[in-house]
Write a structure and sequence with these properties.
This protein has eleven helices and 18 strands. It has 416 residues and is of the alpha+beta class.
């Protein structure tokens, strides 16, 4: 099959489209307890303490705080890209990664990790991995590899788990793996839009295949893991106008989340994992700005290689500044504003939620800020009415407004 450099841009643009959207420093919303009543006399206080029920955090109740994941690299001012609920006192680091236009695997990606204070529980959002393959050998020879980009034929989520991910974990032994059709459906929602764009760039036909699963594995040293994997394969037919032949290019992308825990704490791990994963939310202002930027890169078929990402032209710069400014205003007034966007779910957020359905079901609760999905492993849920702190408990006698002397804690109503 003959090859012409004229067809390289379509293949490169396709890979760019599958670079994941998203170095950040997370800021944690800390819980502040307020004493609304003056302290009673010492003798009376001692009597109250003796008669009051004693509740232990981690046993009678579990407190989750919302962590803000900031994008500090892309724009003139920091912008909140994501938010996630983590158990109180967990440590977290990492976040959005930008690879500038002109570099291999240009785009936005994510690398975020969090762990409990004792190190027993660990959660990771791993960077998306992209690999490509073409029926034209010359195209394969010209492809370059980087940390998150490689070469290879398309495989599905189960093949990726067995052939790539489990071997990377060392002595991992698979316990179970379940397909997740809900995630496949969520991934498919953007197929038509992406197909139309690729065909504007010269593709004759574009086919998509999505697979997703949630698995459990023993990883050695008394540790087990929940592995979440989704793989998208894009098959793009590229015509050669000189000889009438048709080349096929394949671009595959794997998204991964990993939760590790002690083997003897499976039930607790499932509850925490479902809570964390189901809480991930994307800031729509940040998402729109980054999507507009990369769309402009693709449409103009040109790249900039800069030490820091900059908006390419005046039009894109204005779009970015306007959308990010809205997000920054929200950040500046975060404690006084309703974080309504966290109650809304984009297709990407639905993917996170659907993934956890194969771990543990979730329940829907409502407070004055809206509806929130929380782990089904608890009978009672409380919120601090600021969209940042949630408390889960199975104790019918536990009331955080009384225990913490903070009347901002309100019990949430379970809804169907």
């Amino acid at each position: 099959m003959s090859f012409n450099l004229r067809f390289i841009p379509v293949f490169v643009l396709m890979a760019c489209m599958y670079a994941c959207n998203n170095d950040i420093n997370p800021e944690t919303d800390q819980l502040e307890t307020s004493m609304e009543n003056s302290n009673p006399p010492q003798s009376q206080s001692s009597e109250i303490q003796q008669n009051a029920p004693q509740f232990a955090e981690g046993k009678d109740y579990f407190l989750f705080n919302r962590v803000k994941i900031m994008d500090l690299q892309a724009f003139s001012q920091p912008a909140e890209a994501y938010s996630i609920l983590l158990p109180k006192d967990w440590q977290s680091e990492g976040g959005v990664i930008w690879t500038a236009p002109g570099q291999t695997c240009a785009g936005t990606n994510m690398n975020f990790s969090a762990q409990s204070r004792d190190g027993e529980f660990n959660f990771q959002i791993l960077p998306n991995i992209i690999w490509s393959y073409s029926t034209d050998p010359q195209v394969n020879q010209l492809q370059q590899s980087s940390q998150y980009c490689g070469k290879g034929q398309p495989i599905d989520a189960r093949q990726y788990l067995d052939q790539v991910w489990l071997p990377e974990l060392g002595n991992a032994t698979l316990i179970e793996a379940k397909n997740n059709p809900d995630v496949v459906k969520a991934h498919s929602e953007t197929d038509d839009k992406a197909r139309a764009e690729l065909m504007r760039y010269g593709a004759a036909q574009v086919n998509y295949r999505h697979t997703a699963l949630t698995a459990k594995a023993n990883i050695g040293n008394g540790k087990a893991a929940i592995l979440i994997c989704g793989v998208t394969n894009a098959e793009v037919y590229i015509p050669n106008v000189y000889n009438g032949s048709m080349g096929i290019s394949y671009t595959s992308s794997a998204s991964r989340m990993l939760f590790t825990y002690p083997e003897n704490k499976t039930e607790e791990a499932e509850q925490i994992a479902s809570m964390i994963i189901g809480s991930i939310r994307t800031n729509p202002d940040w998402k729109d700005a980054t999507n507009n930027y990369w769309r402009a890169v693709r449409e103009q078929k040109q790249s900039e290689h800069l030490g820091k990402i900059r908006l390419m032209d005046e039009r894109t710069r204005q779009i970015g500044e306007q959308t990010i400014a809205a997000g920054n205003r929200r950040l500046a007034d975060m404690d006084n504003q309703l974080r309504s966007w966290e109650a809304k779910q984009s297709s990407q957020d639905r993917m996170h939620t659907n993934f956890i359905k194969t771990i543990r079901e979730v329940e829907h609760y409502r407070d004055e800020n809206g509806t929130v999905e929380l782990s089904s492993g608890y009978n009672h849920a409380w919120s601090r009415s600021d969209g940042s702190s949630f408390l889960l408990s199975n104790s019918p006698n536990f009331d955080p407004s009384s225990v913490f002397q903070d009347q901002r804690w309100k019990e949430m109503r379970k809804i169907e």
